[in-house]
Amino acid sequence: MENQTIVDALMLGLLEGLTEFIPVSSTGHILLAGHFLGFESTGKTFEVLIQLGAILAILTVYSARLWKMLTLLPRDAATQRFVIGILVAFLPAAVIGALAHDFIKTVLFESPMLICIMLIIGGFILLGVDRLALKPKYHDVMEFPLSLCLKIGLFQCLAMIPGTSRSGATIVGSLLLGADKRSAAEFSFFLAMPTMAGAFAYDLYKNRDILSAADLPIITTGFVASFIMAVIVVRSLLDYVSRKGYGIFAWWRLIVGSLGLIALLIWG
């Protein structure tokens, strides 16, 4: 890593775990925090690789359910349809992400002003959607039709612009397409598994020649911090959004985006 400390990595890892599964853009938060901390990682890999901690958090929290799905998969039509639905939703991001990887990392990841603007725009959108009197048609992620899964996957592609939020794009898309608040968040959890794992593997492959053993302590610190914080968030988020909705996260985005914009205009 070019310019970093273990303390910075710990703080950014905790921030990743806190924000990955709520609709506020974890990547946007990490890039903004890194900008103001002066944290520079090799090829911007730290920001992607520490997502493995959040992936493992999902696997840990959902381990029993995932194991049950695995055992039912060969013979249960509903489980088969759900797994296919997740893969269908993942496909658009996989294709576009691979094609636009270099542009995303070298241009969009280097644009803190864009991140702040997207945080603010997304905040207004999330606030508006949360206040709509929507009538949900889908209450169980296992019953999402494949057409719905594909549409949610297309919404997820918007999150390639940092500051948009992967979970925010999929949750807003799910809500607008007829899912209730709990199932929208849960589908976002499941879709995160192949999406984040794919981003992790592809980024590691693309940067295999520039990473070194010296990068390991920083990445490991961020990974562990991300895992611990993400477990806490995943265990509590579904119950919270079922009762309270997403309004608090909309205001979160508006405040962080506005403060970031002000800081950039003053200090650059």
From TrEMBL:
<feature type="transmembrane region" description="Helical">
    <location>
        <begin position="216"/>
        <end position="238"/>
    </location>
</feature>
<keyword id="KW-0573">Peptidoglycan synthesis</keyword>
<keyword id="KW-0046">Antibiotic resistance</keyword>
<feature type="transmembrane region" description="Helical">
    <location>
        <begin position="146"/>
        <end position="164"/>
    </location>
</feature>
<comment type="function">
    <text>Catalyzes the dephosphorylation of undecaprenyl diphosphate (UPP). Confers resistance to bacitracin.</text>
</comment>
<feature type="transmembrane region" description="Helical">
    <location>
        <begin position="48"/>
        <end position="67"/>
    </location>
</feature>
<keyword id="KW-0812">Transmembrane</keyword>
<dbReference type="GO" id="GO:0005886">
    <property type="term" value="C:plasma membrane"/>
</dbReference>
<feature type="transmembrane region" description="Helical">
    <location>
        <begin position="79"/>
        <end position="100"/>
    </location>
</feature>
<protein>
    <recommendedName>
        <fullName>Undecaprenyl-diphosphatase</fullName>
        <ecNumber>3.6.1.27</ecNumber>
    </recommendedName>
</protein>
<keyword id="KW-0378">Hydrolase</keyword>
<dbReference type="InterPro" id="IPR003824">
    <property type="entry name" value="UppP"/>
</dbReference>
<dbReference type="Pfam" id="PF02673">
    <property type="entry name" value="BacA"/>
</dbReference>
<feature type="transmembrane region" description="Helical">
    <location>
        <begin position="112"/>
        <end position="134"/>
    </location>
</feature>
<dbReference type="GO" id="GO:0046677">
    <property type="term" value="P:response to antibiotic"/>
</dbReference>
<comment type="similarity">
    <text>Belongs to the UppP family.</text>
</comment>
<keyword id="KW-1133">Transmembrane helix</keyword>
<feature type="transmembrane region" description="Helical">
    <location>
        <begin position="250"/>
        <end position="267"/>
    </location>
</feature>
<dbReference type="GO" id="GO:0050380">
    <property type="term" value="F:undecaprenyl-diphosphatase activity"/>
</dbReference>
<keyword id="KW-0472">Membrane</keyword>
<keyword id="KW-0133">Cell shape</keyword>
<dbReference type="GO" id="GO:0071555">
    <property type="term" value="P:cell wall organization"/>
</dbReference>
<keyword id="KW-1003">Cell membrane</keyword>
<feature type="transmembrane region" description="Helical">
    <location>
        <begin position="184"/>
        <end position="204"/>
    </location>
</feature>
<keyword id="KW-0961">Cell wall biogenesis/degradation</keyword>
<dbReference type="GO" id="GO:0009252">
    <property type="term" value="P:peptidoglycan biosynthetic process"/>
</dbReference>
<dbReference type="GO" id="GO:0008360">
    <property type="term" value="P:regulation of cell shape"/>
</dbReference>
